[in-house]
Amino acid sequence: MIKPALHKQKYYAWKKGKKAEFLARWYLRICGYKILDYNIKTSLGEIDIIARKKSCIFIIEVKARKDLDKGLEAIQHYQQKRIHKATLLWLQKTPQFGDYSVRFVALLIIPLRLPKLILDAWFIE
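^ that's the sequence the OP posted. Answer follows.
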């Protein structure tokens, strides 16, 4: 059984994440990205946001942290692999984007600052 205090912590963390993802989508639209999908859950992993700009698909992981370093550190290698697997599954289901290049991006939401978009935050080999 989850302790009430822990349950409350999880709820606030979830709520903070949802607000960060909303701000991220807003910011991406202003920057000229077209949001294709968001909050994608698959059996292989989760993707926060999938966006397109020109002929490129951007797989975006959103992190809300107090500073930039903590935001980047929060995207662990195992999470990158899960996002990659979920991306492959999404691409199989959306063949119209098969010729597009794919880039993995971190979008960091830092208090009192504009969101920080880090293109090519990681690569999968």
